[in-house]
Design a protein that fits this description.
By secondary structure, the chain is of the alpha/beta class. Helix content is 45%, strand content 17%. The protein is flat. Guanosine-5'-diphosphate binds next to helix 9.
């Protein structure tokens, strides 16, 4: 729970810790400028104009030389008075400056507190704030592109449009409430039903983007499976190419997999080689394939490898028995096949050589096709639902709209009661964009932020 008092002036190092040329210390709140004027010399002449400055502590000791910019409320990221100092990087200078600001009256910021204040001051809505977090967390270009378009307000505008349509629907149905004695109020019920259906269809269009949005944000889990020695790890490395360097052990409980982020025809994928950690990988119940059960369950696509017809068929059988995820059959080490054998290769089986790189583009395309088939097309220019929170809210609004519709269709509720569903749908959408002040929603959204954001 954030100590939420806009009366506090907050400070944080906004850049990542560690060695780096520059770091940024950020301060926001009612005392930001007063504290800055005491510790920064000379104080920049105007807001939003950079100044080359010395930063000192309360006793006047020089802490660092840097560039300072101050902002006057409301023209700042948070909407409050704010100060940003670009100082030298590394562990000392930014920490000294932040500590000096604290000793002069600021307090260390909680994770996401700057962005939270931006939301509370109407600088960003909640969907845009989530986009800020997504931008920082994006590890692929598609995920970053999606976050950028959400920051631009695309999704917010769609949700606001929906809200407008629900309000219009409520106004339509209100005529009926005002004329309760008429058999069929001045607005025919058919018109209200059609309008309700129209809004539901709009919600459905947006909801239909969620599978793609969540997948782009998180990356599709693509698991490489197959018998020992068929070439899984080699394929994993070949798929990553020079991006091999970002391979890391998966943090958390399972340490039996290597996972790395790459792309398959625009889709961000998390490629998993569970054979990468020999000693802990189970050969699943003597079915002959090396892959952890947990990853089989989480897979969006499974790449089944075999370096012979037999090993590939065995692998495919095992995978089909163990998982419902779509699978791609890959005949590995294709460079070892002579032309005759390659020509006899059966349909639906890709020939790939990790050694020569042959077949890798086709494999990427095949992965993308499986994802398109299960999630829908990858059109990132239109607004897309990217989080469970957003999907739940839209599904909730949809259910309220449906109940309104059904109540009208069956005349099962008085109009005034049916309209309660519309009000609830509106409230849910307002909560979704953060237009109504709901602390627990803010807490949930901002708890995952970094300090300084
Ligand atoms: P894993 O146990 O399934 O992960 O298999 P590895 O990737 O460790 O490969 C097993 C052996 O096959 C190694 O000796 C690799 O050098 C070899 N190998 C893997 N891929 C290819 C390939 O595309 N062509 C050739 N000629 N050999 C390969």
């Amino acid at each position: 729970m954030i100590r939420d008092s806009a009366a506090d002036t907050i400070v944080a190092i906004a850049t990542a810790p560690g060695r780096g040329a520059l770091a940024i210390v950020r301060m926001s709140g009612p005392r930001a400028l007063e504290i800055g004027e005491r510790l920064i010399r000379p104080w920049p002449s105007e807001p939003r104009h950079v100044g080359l400055v010395h930063v000192v502590d309360l006793s006047g000791d020089l802490l660092d030389q840097g560039i300072a910019t101050f902002y006057r409320s409301p023209a700042s990221f948070t909407g409050e008075d704010a100060l940003e100092v670009s100082c030298h990087g590394g562990p000392i200078a930014p920490a000294l400056i932040a500590a000096a600001f604290v000793s002069a009256g600021a307090r260390p910021a909680e994770p996401g507190e700057f962005t939270r204040r931006a939301v509370l001051n109407g600088k960003l809505d909640l969907l845009q704030a989530e986009a800020v977090a997504d931008l920082v967390d994006a590890s692929t270009r598609p995920a970053q592109r999606l976050a950028l378009s959400q920051l631009d307000g695309g999704l917010s505008r769609r949700v606001l449009g929906l809200r407008e349509h629900i309000l219009a629907l409520e106004a339509l149905s209100a005529y009926d409430i005002d004329f309760p004695d008429e058999d069929d109020g001045p607005i025919p019920a058919s018109r209200i039903l059609a309008a309700a259906k129209g809004v539901i269809a709009e919600v459905d269009l947006l909801l239909a983007t969620a599978p793609v949005g969540e997948l782009v944000r998180e990356g599709a889990v693509v698991v490489i499976a197959g018998a020992p020695n068929v070439g899984k790890s080699s394929l994993f490395n070949a798929m990553l190419g020079r991006r091999r360097a970002i391979v890391t052990d998966v943090p958390g409980t399972t340490r039996d997999a290597l996972e790395a982020v790459t792309e398959a025809d625009g889709w961000p994928i998390r490629l998993v080689d569970t054979a990468g950690m020999r000693d802990t990988t189970e050969v699943v119940e003597r079915m002959g394939i090396e892959v952890s059960r947990e990853y089989l369950e989480r897979a969006d696509v499974i790449v089944v490898c075999g370096d012979s017809e037999t090993s590939l068929l065995d692998g495919e059988q095992a995978v089909t028995a163990l998982s419902g995820a779509p699978a791609i059959a890959v005949r590995t080490k294709s460079d070892l096949l002579d032309g005759m054998k390659a020509a006899r290769n059966r349909d639906g089986q890709l020939l790939v050589s990790a050694e020569s790189g042959d077949g890798l583009p086709k494999l990427r395309r095949a992965i993308a096709e499986k994802l398109e088939a299960s999630r829908g097309s990858l059109a990132l220019d239109a607004p897309i639902v990217t989080r469970e929170r957003q999907r739940f809210a839209l599904a909730h609004a949809r259910s309220e709209l449906q109940q309104f519709h059904d109540a009208w269709a069956q005349r099962s509720l008085p109009a005034v009661v049916a309209a309660v569903h519309l009000r609830e749908a509106t409230r849910v959408l307002e909560e979704l964009i953060g237009a109504v002040d709901v602390d627990d929603v803010l807490d949930r959204v901002f708890s995952a932020f970094c300090v300084g954001k």
